[in-house]
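Methods — Computational structure assignment.
A single polypeptide chain was analysed. Its primary sequence is given first, followed by the predicted tertiary structure written as structure tokens.
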Amino acid sequence: MSVCRTFLSTFCLILYCGCSVIENSHRQKMPMMSAYMAGDNDFVHAELADQLEEPGFFTASTVNTGDELHWQLEAGSFAFHSGNFEAALAHLTRAENLIADYDDRARISLRDAGANAGMLITNLNALPYRGFCRDRMMLQIYKSLVYLALNREDAFRAQLRRLRNAQKQIQDDYREFFDSEQAALEAARQNNPQAAATAGQGSSAEKLAAGNRNEKFSAALKATGKAAHRGYGNFLNPAALFLSALGSIRDGNFDNARIDLQRVYEAMPDNPLTQTYLATILDSTGRERPAALQKVKAFDFPLDHDCVYVLFANGRSAAFQQISLNFPVMAAWPVCEFYPAQFEKLLISAGNRQYQTGILADMDGIIAREFEERMPLMITRIVLSTAIKEAAKYAAAYAAYQENEVAGALVLAGASLYTAAVNTADTRSWEILPKELQLTQFPMPADRQITIAFDNRSAGQFPLTLPEKCRSAIIFVSAPSPQNVAIHLLPLTSK
């Protein structure tokens, strides 16, 4: 009877946590992402609909499970890519509400305690996915652009004014989150001292990567470290600060714009784009340029009106894949997986002039840097969870063996099957995101004709006519691959 109760409680826990407890999330998404890169958007839409349908006993729905958030985020960015802006807003708003629910919930609550207990007997997927800092900032960026796409320019401007505070709030919230995670982990250590002692023997990335058995893990660490150096401190997303600055510029608040652009420049001091923006805004506010910007040529056209901005969402975001790691038992681990960019830049013709996009935010660098920062705590959690499951497996088998040798063998076999089934890495992430965001800008052409081309010629050329109602415009180009290109004209009608 006790075995039945244990099985039933574990089964219910897995249902609550989501399917990623058994099959890692990245593998679940592989067919969808392959279709997305191939341009089969109908398949992507159908998969997202299945994941987010009304929950039922025989459905694959993730609604009301710990996996719902990252599927809502996928649905939000995909709906935006597809031009279904009402659906995008609904998904992003639901995701925002889920995040608020996690943040408002007491850090050590009965529900969180249950999730942490579930993690110890299953894996990290038992904890609700709360979103990376990158996710939370990109949610706000997409939401601002969705408002503009829905011709809600006032809501767009209000959202831009929130971006700067949102960046700081995310930093503060995540520091608190890390502290609460550390407290929960310390409690688990105290409740499982023997397993904690075992976990302490291999609780650093360097120890786990040592030796010839974990070469794949070691190579992944090096690739992540290289990408992380392209990231920015304090979970900064320069694209968010740029949009915040753009809102301030269009509102005539050049001092606030200067503060945002100063931070972008400090994050990327060698980037010609950030240099030009800061030099231009310093000139506009009558402030002296620093020595490094003395020779930088400012924009020769106004940024606050009659201007076209092109945002280029280039390629496919880094994700997390599962690998096997020995320490000494075999365990599943998440590592960053990076995908090559199939474009270098956009080439744009407007008003008898040529323009090209430059890097605004290295999204791979942002997620790699955050993953690297979270790694020590994640490693300790995985090692501790694995040690607890191994100890429990042999303790249960030994206790059964004292009563009956056959029962002991059966318990050991069953426990081994269970630990193998839940030997799943937490690879949950928001994958329908770009590898990088690029930007260019130019004055509104007199004939309102522009042509967008890719340096990868297989993607073709796209002529656009800007309607008369556009005083200014943001053109959002989403191109995960040459087979899947979407261009959205987001008019700014106020000036």
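Note: The first strand starts at residue 307 and ends at 314.
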